[in-house]
Task: inverse folding
């Protein structure tokens, strides 16, 4: 069945239903990952190479069986396999959830309720939020919207188009493990190395296609300029292009210093213009929404072109 039709159906389901409120597979996967980490992490004095091997083993043990299961379900004949593919892609998408979380921050800022806004943005980002002012809260939210547009939507769509439901499932699980283990601190620098590197690899093309979509649907020249000049300085090879292009597309300034775990980090500036406010959160959400439609249109056009090739 048409990959574009399956992807469009899954996106529509996510828009209508959002993430399951109970028994979400990714929540169960996260708990399983935490349990397996406790058993495979190893002794405190383990050598870095041993710790990396243990982390790689944990990654394989968590991702490979789930990916194989997705492949078996998607291979079921006829409508059953198609329905399974739609359901699996739907479960990997988080577009509506992203909109809901970011909109809650914007609404709190519009009410000048900074405590509520800090609480809401704290559900989206890993930085320290207790001392953030209004522009800091809005900036953190816009950064999360732009980056998670790739992680929670476009990456899954890319791998679904390329490898079907197993590709989307593998991508989302690796991305989840990177979010859990991909920190450059004493505990995860080695144990999370495999998850972080594999996530970088799987996101390389989706991130650049996402950045291209943001640029096409926003202030294109500024977005491309920011991508070219600023992304190389960002610590993540994939978040840099996505966030620099998105910030330029919106004409806002992101990045700058931020505190993580009580430690201040000096981050380069992204974009150009004034710091964002509540309205810019809504603009960022609209940019991601337009880019989703662009991606779906692209899938339909690619399928149409592919059908024409044998008759050329």
Result:
């Amino acid at each position: 069945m048409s990959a574009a039709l399956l992807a469009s159906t899954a996106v529509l389901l996510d828009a209508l239903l959002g993430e399951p409120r109970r028994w979400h597979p990714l929540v169960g996967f996260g708990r399983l990952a935490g349990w397996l980490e406790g058993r495979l992490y190893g002794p405190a004095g383990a050598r870095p190479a041993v710790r990396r091997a243990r982390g790689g083993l944990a990654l394989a043990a968590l991702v490979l069986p789930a990916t194989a299961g997705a492949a078996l379900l998607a291979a079921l004949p006829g409508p059953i396999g198609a329905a399974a593919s739609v359901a699996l892609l739907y479960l990997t998408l988080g577009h509506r959830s992203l909109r809901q979380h970011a909109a809650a921050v914007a609404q709190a800022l519009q009410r000048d309720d900074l405590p509520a806004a800090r609480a809401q943005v704290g559900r989206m980002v890993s930085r320290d939020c207790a001392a953030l002012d209004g522009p800091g809260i809005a900036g953190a939210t816009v950064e999360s919207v732009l980056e998670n547009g790739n992680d929670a939507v476009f990456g899954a769509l890319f791998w679904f188009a390329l490898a079907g439901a197993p590709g989307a499932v593998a991508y989302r699980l690796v991305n989840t493990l990177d979010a859990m283990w991909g920190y450059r601190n004493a505990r995860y620098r080695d144990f999370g190395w495999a998850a972080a590197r594999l996530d970088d690899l799987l996101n390389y093309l989706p991130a650049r296609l996402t950045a291209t979509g943001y640029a096409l649907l926003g202030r294109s020249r500024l977005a491309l300029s920011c991508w070219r000049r600023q992304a190389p300085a960002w610590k993540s090879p994939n978040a840099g292009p996505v966030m620099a292009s998105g910030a330029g597309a919106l004409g806002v300034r992101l990045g700058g210093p931020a505190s993580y775990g009580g430690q201040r980090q000096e981050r380069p500036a992204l974009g150009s213009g004034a710091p964002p406010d509540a309205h810019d959160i809504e603009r960022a959400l609209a940019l991601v929404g337009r880019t989703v439609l662009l991606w779906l249109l692209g899938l339909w056009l690619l399928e149409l072109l592919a059908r024409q090739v044998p008759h050329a």
Observations:
- Strands lie at 253-255, 258-260, 263-265, 269-271.
- The longest strand covers residues 253-255.
- The first helix runs from residue 3 to 17.
